[in-house]
Amino acid sequence: MDWRDQGILLASRRHGENAAIIEVLTPERGRHAGVVRGGASRKLSPILQPGAQLDLEWRARLEDHIGTFRVEPMRSRAGTAMGDRLALAGLNAVTSLLLFCLPEREACLSLYRRTETLLDLLDQPEIWPLAYLNWELALLEEMGFGLDLRACAVMGPEANDLSFVSPRSGRAVSRAGAGEWADRLLPLPPCMLGQGPAPDAEILQGFDLTGHFLRNHLAPELGNKPLPDARQRFIDRFAQRTHRP
């Protein structure tokens, strides 16, 4: 069994004296693990950093074996991340959530493309947090818990003042449609509808919204595991930037 593809490195851990086990996200085979011989060496360990874009060749005697990877670097994102604490926290949030959510060896071409695009924006801090928020929406969609922000769940498409989201159904609700139930709904910031300049305060509000569905809808389907700490560390660091005088 063998295949060749490119992928994004999600994690690497030492295996034995000189090898490493890596997990990558690929377009056609989803999240996939394998052993890299010499992966812990001085030559390869600097390459095997989270976020790296790799050319991959995987081989195994049987398809269900862990197999071995031969890797060639295509581009590194470590330099960008290491030079910016927010970028590093964001990179760690992305890779940790993918490891948390994705089943092994299931294709996720759309999410792969969204992830690659997002990571290529790491050096643009003015737009990256909003891009990351939209990526979390795509992740929820991929996992079967997408939000429906197209029309008001109560009043239909005629309502044009979408302001809330139902915490149970994930459907948008207009201000008029919410009525006396507004305090039981989750605020929907305009930036998630593609409206306005997307100030940091709105993006933080968006993280509260996606976080609710990650914690209360997705996580229970994955055995009630807690969300990766890396996500909250990124949000906390972003909040510090937001509140900086």
What labels would you give this structure?
alpha+beta, DNA repair, de novo design (two linked rop proteins), 2 domains, NA-bd_OB-fold, 245 residues
Task: Please describe what this structure looks like.
- The termini are far apart.
- This protein folds into 2 domains: 2-75, Nucleic acid-binding proteins (OB fold (Dihydrolipoamide Acetyltransferase, E2P)), CATH 2.40.50.140; 79-149 and 188-243, de novo design (two linked rop proteins), CATH 1.20.1440.
- It contains 7 helices and 8 strands.
- It has helices at residues 78-82, 85-101, 109-119, 128-142, 175-178, 200-221, 229-242; strands at 2-15, 19-26, 30-36, 53-59, 68-75, 162-165, 172-174, 186-187.
- The chain is of the alpha+beta class and 245 residues long.
- It holds the Pfam family RecO_N.
- Residues 1-74 form the DNA replication/recombination mediator RecO N-terminal domain.
- This is DNA repair protein RecO.
User: Mind telling me which CATH architecture of the largest domain this is?
Assistant: Up-down Bundle
Query: If strands are numbered along the chain, what order do they take across the biggest sheet?
Result: 3-2-1-4-5
The proportion of strand residues reads: 15-25%
Low-confidence stretches: none
Large-scale geometry? elongated
Q: Helicity level, as a percent range?
A: 25-40%
User: Could you say which structural class the secondary elements and strand pairing correspond to?
Assistant: alpha+beta
Report the major sheet. Answer: 5 strands, antiparallel
Count helical runs.
Answer: 7
Mean residue pLDDT: 95
Report the strand count. Answer: 8
